[in-house]
Amino acid sequence: MISKNLRRVVVTGMGAITPLGNTVKEYWDGLIAGRSGIDAITHFDASLHNCKIAGEVRDFDPHDYLERKDAKHISRFAQFAVCASMQAIANAEFKINDSNATQVGIIIGNGIGGLQVIEEQQKIFLTQGPKRCSPFTIPMTISNIAAGLTAIHTGAKGPNYCTVTACAAGSNAIGEAFRLIQTGQVQAMICGGTEAAITPLCIAAFSSAKTLSNRNEEPTRASRPFDKERNGFVMGEGAGILLIEDLEHAIRRGATHIYAEIVGYGLTCDAYHITTPTPSGEGATRAMELALKDARLFPNEVSYINAHGTSTIANDATETLAIKQALGNRALEIPISSTKSMTGHLLGASGGIEAIATVLTVGLDVIPPTINLDQPDPKCDLDYVPHTSRNQRVDIALSNSFGFGGHNVSLAFKKFED
Amino acid sequence: MTRQEIFNKVQIVVSEELANEQQKITPEANLTLDLGADYLDLIAVFQALEDAFNTRIPAQEAKQLLTVQQVVNYIGQKVIF
């Protein structure tokens, strides 16, 4: 614990752009219906790729949120972040103005940055020479620009940075934002993750590393966490953003809705391998243990886990082991789901959209399912809420995110009570 | 290529680069003050004009071109068809 006088931190607004829809409601409705957002790749010709499927964001028009000139020079991953942040602020009915701008910060994580622009500009560089490279190349591609642009378009002048911890980035961002409010440094934070990496090079590269599913003939059945027939993750894109506040600030300003309270943040590293989780699950175990310790909770109080659940051979078995190690016998009783079965894996944005799913699970007492779990891997022997959602009271929930490089993050959310 | 043809082409290029309506790209329009170009936009505009007219516009000379008409006049002097 950092200080004796920690502030309580609550979620008061949310914004989402996902393969299941471009609002929180569409996203949540898709999750609860057990609908898959995975389909054939349309962003580029994938005919020569081993993997031809992804969870693309569809029907997204940045001009719904941004002036044409602004949208033109904001790359897709940052557009998602800015627009989802605008949704979150509107959802919270929160106004950022001269009187409070320095008390509102932004942390938005991502894993890959503006790779699409890098690929396009590299082609121009090679075919037309160095003088033809766009002056917007760097500000369109650097990972921190999503947070910077969100500040420009919202006016928030508080702490502003980017967590770049691969697939843990979105959860890292929320955890860091939680700490800044908890320790009294700011009153509100816009936080979460964004990613738009469904590009020719990125799909080829992940595929070469044998991490992507190539179940191309059955896109909706390709992401199948904890299933015996899983053969890799399916890449998704989008953004998930939370507006979180000091509880007293939220009450004082008359916040319309408090969705949940953030109570714990655990982060560790495997120090083991660049892509593979340590087989002992030690790092993931400690992340969950630390999140619970931070929240002053015991394993028997946990009522749901939103798993990282990538649908790769290594992750799902190791995460299952880690959950058992962190929660003991309680692990057998806790409903767990991988919403990546429906959205695919949004890399640095996954922690953002999964935090939203977890917050809504806590708030609404509805647990989204793990679809495509037809025949569980014997190493994955917990209750993963297969196929259909479940109505069940959820008081405390964990959201797990683990990234290449061995980064492990677990966030703890609690049903809000005065 | 007539001045009108040059203007028409400049209008299209500037409109695309600055995401402005073509009608706003008048001869008198100042690229910065009226059309909202910042220094990065200006670099992109002159790169696109170089490509469109297959010519070179040195940075020192580009700095002197403040309005659409000045751009049209400059290109008119350089481009001979």
Automatic annotation (TrEMBL), chain A:
<comment type="function">
    <text>Involved in the type II fatty acid elongation cycle. Catalyzes the elongation of a wide range of acyl-ACP by the addition of two carbons from malonyl-ACP to an acyl acceptor. Can efficiently catalyze the conversion of palmitoleoyl-ACP (cis-hexadec-9-enoyl-ACP) to cis-vaccenoyl-ACP (cis-octadec-11-enoyl-ACP), an essential step in the thermal regulation of fatty acid composition.</text>
</comment>
<comment type="similarity">
    <text>Belongs to the thiolase-like superfamily. Beta-ketoacyl-ACP synthases family.</text>
</comment>
<dbReference type="GO" id="GO:0005829">
    <property type="term" value="C:cytosol"/>
</dbReference>
<dbReference type="InterPro" id="IPR000794">
    <property type="entry name" value="Beta-ketoacyl_synthase"/>
</dbReference>
<dbReference type="Pfam" id="PF02801">
    <property type="entry name" value="Ketoacyl-synt_C"/>
</dbReference>
<protein>
    <recommendedName>
        <fullName>3-oxoacyl-[acyl-carrier-protein] synthase 2</fullName>
        <ecNumber>2.3.1.179</ecNumber>
    </recommendedName>
</protein>
<keyword id="KW-0443">Lipid metabolism</keyword>
<keyword id="KW-0444">Lipid biosynthesis</keyword>
<dbReference type="GO" id="GO:0006633">
    <property type="term" value="P:fatty acid biosynthetic process"/>
</dbReference>
<keyword id="KW-0808">Transferase</keyword>
<dbReference type="GO" id="GO:0004315">
    <property type="term" value="F:3-oxoacyl-[acyl-carrier-protein] synthase activity"/>
</dbReference>
<dbReference type="InterPro" id="IPR017568">
    <property type="entry name" value="3-oxoacyl-ACP_synth-2"/>
</dbReference>
<dbReference type="Pfam" id="PF00109">
    <property type="entry name" value="ketoacyl-synt"/>
</dbReference>
<dbReference type="InterPro" id="IPR016039">
    <property type="entry name" value="Thiolase-like"/>
</dbReference>
<keyword id="KW-0012">Acyltransferase</keyword>
<feature type="domain" description="Ketosynthase family 3 (KS3)">
    <location>
        <begin position="6"/>
        <end position="415"/>
    </location>
</feature>
<dbReference type="InterPro" id="IPR014030">
    <property type="entry name" value="Ketoacyl_synth_N"/>
</dbReference>
<dbReference type="InterPro" id="IPR014031">
    <property type="entry name" value="Ketoacyl_synth_C"/>
</dbReference>
<comment type="pathway">
    <text>Lipid metabolism; fatty acid biosynthesis.</text>
</comment>
<feature type="active site" description="For beta-ketoacyl synthase activity">
    <location>
        <position position="167"/>
    </location>
</feature>
<keyword id="KW-0276">Fatty acid metabolism</keyword>
<dbReference type="InterPro" id="IPR018201">
    <property type="entry name" value="Ketoacyl_synth_AS"/>
</dbReference>
UniProtKB/TrEMBL annotation, chain B:
<dbReference type="GO" id="GO:0016020">
    <property type="term" value="C:membrane"/>
</dbReference>
<dbReference type="GO" id="GO:0000036">
    <property type="term" value="F:acyl carrier activity"/>
</dbReference>
<keyword id="KW-0597">Phosphoprotein</keyword>
<keyword id="KW-0443">Lipid metabolism</keyword>
<comment type="pathway">
    <text>Lipid metabolism; fatty acid biosynthesis.</text>
</comment>
<dbReference type="GO" id="GO:0009245">
    <property type="term" value="P:lipid A biosynthetic process"/>
</dbReference>
<dbReference type="InterPro" id="IPR003231">
    <property type="entry name" value="ACP"/>
</dbReference>
<comment type="similarity">
    <text>Belongs to the acyl carrier protein (ACP) family.</text>
</comment>
<dbReference type="GO" id="GO:0005829">
    <property type="term" value="C:cytosol"/>
</dbReference>
<dbReference type="GO" id="GO:0000035">
    <property type="term" value="F:acyl binding"/>
</dbReference>
<feature type="domain" description="Carrier">
    <location>
        <begin position="4"/>
        <end position="79"/>
    </location>
</feature>
<protein>
    <recommendedName>
        <fullName>Acyl carrier protein</fullName>
    </recommendedName>
</protein>
<keyword id="KW-0963">Cytoplasm</keyword>
<keyword id="KW-0444">Lipid biosynthesis</keyword>
<dbReference type="InterPro" id="IPR009081">
    <property type="entry name" value="PP-bd_ACP"/>
</dbReference>
<keyword id="KW-0596">Phosphopantetheine</keyword>
<comment type="function">
    <text>Carrier of the growing fatty acid chain in fatty acid biosynthesis.</text>
</comment>
<keyword id="KW-0275">Fatty acid biosynthesis</keyword>
<dbReference type="Pfam" id="PF00550">
    <property type="entry name" value="PP-binding"/>
</dbReference>
<keyword id="KW-0276">Fatty acid metabolism</keyword>
<dbReference type="InterPro" id="IPR036736">
    <property type="entry name" value="ACP-like_sf"/>
</dbReference>
